[in-house]
Design goal:
Blueprint (H helix, E strand, L loop, with lengths): L1 E12 L11 E12 L2 E13 L6 E13 L2 E14 L2 E8 L5 E2 L4 E10 L2 E10 L1
Antiparallel strand pairs: 1-2, 1-9, 2-3, 3-4, 4-5, 5-6, 5-7, 6-8, 8-9
Length: 130
């Protein structure tokens, strides 16, 4: 199955247990999202990022637990994020953590892509449900 929809994200800076050295900026954020469309859900999670001194080069990881309905099925699942930017060229991977699905979403697997167009966030979610 493949679905597309929109989401809103609120990122709040959080205290970090360490400090970047040699001009590397380390950051931590709390994530709150609202998904709309075939995936109607909210999520909460945390993101860690590193910004380098080279414009357009950075990396981030995040974990978010999504709770709501997917095509009418209720439950939750966890998304794991891995993203890098190399002088503006980006790579982003979001995957459902294996065996993280609950309720009607038990057995969920898949990957999500995020797009930002004209300031609007979109998700493309390709998944299967055992």
């Amino acid at each position: 199955m493949k679905i597309t929809g929109t989401f809103k994200v609120n990122m709040q800076p959080q205290a970090l247990s360490c400090e970047g050295k040699e001009n590397i900026q380390l950051s931590r954020f709390a994530l709150d999202k609202t998904y709309e469309g075939t995936l109607s859900a909210t999520s909460q999670g945390e993101m860690l990022s590193a910004m380098t001194t080279v414009q357009g080069s950075a990396g981030y990881v995040a974990i978010e637990q999504v709770v709501g309905t997917l095509k009418g099925k209720k439950g939750s699942f966890v998304l794991q994020h891995y993203g890098t930017m190399s002088q503006g060229d980006s790579y982003l991977k979001l995957e459902v953590v294996p065996d993280s699905g609950s309720g009607d979403l038990k057995g969920l697997s898949g990957a999500m892509n995020i797009r930002i167009e004209d300031g609007q966030h979109y998700y493309d979610f390709e998944y299967s449900l055992d």
